[in-house]
Amino acid sequence: MKKILIVYKSKTGFTKRYVDWICEEVTCDTRTLNETKSSDIDKYDIIIYGAGIRAGFISGLKKFKKLVDINNKKVIVFATGAVAKSDDMIQPVIENNLADCKSRVGFFYFESGICYEKMGAFSRGMMRIFSKMLNAKKDKSEIDEEMSKAIMSSFDNSKKENIESLVTLLKEYYKF
Ligand SMILES: Cc1cc2nc3c(=O)[nH]c(=O)nc-3n(C[C@H](O)[C@H](O)[C@H](O)COP(=O)(O)O)c2cc1C
Description:
Blueprint: E1 4-9, H1 14-25, E2 29-32, H2 38-41, E3 46-54, E4 57-58, H3 61-67, E5 74-81, H4 87-98, E6 105-111, E7 113-114, H5 121-136, H6 142-150, E8 155-156, H7 164-173
Parallel strand pairs: 1-2, 1-3, 3-5, 5-6
Antiparallel strand pairs: 3-4, 7-8
């Protein structure tokens, strides 16, 4: 049986909720990014990394990439974000984050939400700047419009059914 490790970073709990849902369906060990060492990764066949998107970038992914040898491990990355899933939003996320390794890494996007109550002062400040930047943009895309409305207050669109395709891959492809 293949051994799976999920490494994750979750500031406001959305990514952690998706990690817990995945663990309900497939047997995985989990570790936060901060507590993960390269030596932990060696023991596993499949490494999944999950984190929230911040201004287009998957939080902690650079650090994760330094811990794992993408050429020798099966790596899957999932990102959680406030924007509804669509090809238009996923392509830039892949280009911004996985351009160097997209042919070797599986990618999944899970819609989540915004939780101002669990955000630190720094993140709230970032959101204010982000919101001003979006509002000041002249030719807003549909995604910009959606994002600028969404980030005005807390909301939660996370759903367990969003993990189905990842769980199917783990169960069928890897005969888990
Ligand atoms: C500063 C900041 C920037 C964000 N930027 C984006 C973004 O570019 N795209 C997006 O879809 N969501 C964005 N979000 C929403 C988060 O990605 C979303 O809440 C995520 O699920 C948080 O994960 P966590 O709760 O596990 O930390 C942003 C949130 C914060 C606080």
